[in-house]
Amino acid sequence: MRKQVARFFFAVLGVWLPLLSVAAGSQDMQSLQQAAQTWVAEQLNEPNAQVQIVAVPADILLPACQVPLQIAPQGNAELRGRVNLRVTCSQPDWFVFVTAEVLLHHAVVVAATALPRGTALSASQLRLMEIDVSRVRGNYYTDPQDLQGMRLRSAVRADEVITTRHLIAVNAVERGDQVVIRAVGENLSIRMMGEAMESGRVGDQVRVRNVQSGRVIRARVTDRGQVEVNF
Q1: Domain match, 220 and 165 both
Q2: What is the dihedral of CA 135, 136, 137, 141, to 10 degrees?
Q3: What is the predicted pLDDT for the residue at 18?
Q4: pLDDT for 150
Q5: Do residues 103 and 50 make contact, with C-beta atoms less than 8 angstroms apart?
Q6: Distance, CA of 78 to CA of 198 (rounded, Å)
Q7: pLDDT tier at 43 (50, 70, 90 boundaries)?
Q8: How far does CA 155 lie from the centroid of its chain?
């Protein structure tokens, strides 16, 4: 798996504090930010992520929290890009807002060259490139094969990330089409003609009728006009 990097830049934005004594000691801001770091890393669910924090000093005193801190996103709950977090203590009662800049690096599918609108995509037109996806609009792809059978809704530039907003799903098999059925075994591969009983995109399971035997089977669409079944 490629290295996935998440960097978090935290700054105290605001604080609410009741009128109470701080004689019991003040809250360690480093431990507060560490708690926020740990919480974000757990939510990302990316065990190989590396987390760095650059703390912005804040000239405020909070009573030391006597219970585990509670952390939740404020507003936009998606943990990428700029995220506001609310850190709450219930004993004593206070909360503080923290902002995080979350940068996530992934190898994603981009256009290998400039492609015009309407292009039917093939693997040769695509490549993987590691980028910060925290500000990518739309869902991105990590495998060029996932775009087989797709057509571009709009033109894209070279090295531009291909997302769902760029694509029109195109069926590789239409109901009633004549298709090639490839039956694959451990040491054997057989080809036969079939008729698609339903439409599907690459990767879909569709019903196909064997023209010779009349038997209807379920097969996986592998390319335009081609399906595959294991036996």
Answers
A1: no
A2: -150
A3: 46
A4: 84
A5: no
A6: 37
A7: confident
A8: 23
**Cα distance between residue 42 and residue 46, in whole Å:** 8
pLDDT in tens, 61-92: 889 999 999 998 887 667 777 778 888 999 99
The dihedrals phi and psi of 115, each to the nearest 5 degrees, come to -125, 130
pLDDT of residue 68: 93
Q: Residue 47: which domain range?
A: 5-104
The answer on 96 and 64 residing in a single domain is: yes
Q: Which of 30, 92, 29 is nearest to 63 (CA)?
A: 92
53 shares its domain with 122:
no
CATH number, residue 196:
2.30.30.760
Q: Check pLDDT > 50 for residue 57.
A: no
Q: What CATH number does residue 128 fall under?
A: 3.90.1210.10
Kindly state the helix (H) or strand (E) to which residue 41 belongs, with its residue range: helix 29-44
State the Cα–Cα distance between residues 80 and 35, nearest whole angstrom: 18
